[in-house]
Design goal:
Number of strands: 5
Structural class: mainly alpha
Oligomer: single chain
Radius of gyration: 21 Å
Distance between the termini: 35 Å
Helix content: 55-70%
Order of helices and strands: HEEHHHHHHEEHE
CATH architecture: Orthogonal Bundle
Shape: globular
């Protein structure tokens, strides 16, 4: 067994030895991406502080959020290898201020930190990592091949129901700017998904999440 696998296996063995009754007192490890651990508090903080995309969270919020954090760690590993670690502190502070502003009072913000077993330093680190990922993705995937007229017509014909205004079907010429943007966005999403899939094939990902009673 390789050293990293042995460390991960040992970590899980320790958690298992603690017993199911200790689950309320420990920060459960849900996944390990290469050497990076993703815990339950990471997942709950990502949800509580809106650090993840909201799509389809209602089915299983923990599972969906964990998948997004695994994806984030895969990208962050690549970012760390490719770009300097420095991020403008002012941007991080602005993002943190925006997060605090979502709460009715500083006490409510502090209470949410406590509820998610999070502290401000860890949350700030997560926010800084998100900014680094966003910047890298914008630089790497910002330019996408311009769709041809055939692409635009084909998308419009396939998604006609999406292009209405006031109950009226928009013509192709009316919808063209929106169609173009959607074609480009779908192409960008596919490029990113393919790239992340390749990153995952090269990575060591251990996912031990199981649906069960939530920790308290």
């Amino acid at each position: 067994m390789r050293m990293r696998e042995a460390v991960v296996a040992g970590l899980f063995a320790v958690l298992l030895a603690a017993g199911l009754h200790a689950a309320d007192r420990i920060d459960r490890v849900l996944a390990v991406v290469n050497a990076d651990v993703i815990t339950e508090s990471d997942v709950r903080a990502a949800l509580a502080f809106d650090l993840v995309r909201p799509a389809r969270l209602e089915a299983d919020p923990i599972r969906t959020t964990l998948d997004q954090l695994i994806r984030r760690e895969l990208i962050l590993d690549e970012v760390t290898r490719s770009t300097p670690a420095e991020t403008d502190p002012a941007r991080v502070t602005a993002r943190m201020n925006a997060i605090r502003a979502r709460f009715p009072s500083p006490a409510a913000y502090e209470a949410r930190l406590a509820e998610t077993a999070m502290n401000e330093t860890r949350l700030r680190d997560m926010v800084e990592a998100d900014i680094r990922v966003e910047d890298y993705m914008r630089q790497r995937f910002g330019a996408v091949a311009e769709p041809s007229d055939v692409d635009i017509v084909g998308y419009y014909e396939t998604h006609r129901a999406d292009f209405t205004s006031g109950g009226r079907q928009l013509t192709l010429d009316e919808a063209r700017p929106t169609v173009r943007e959607r074609v480009i966005e779908e192409r960008r999403r596919q490029l990113v998904d393919d790239w992340v899939a390749r990153l995952r094939r090269r990575a060591e990902v251990t996912d031990v999440y199981f649906a069960g009673p939530p920790s308290r």
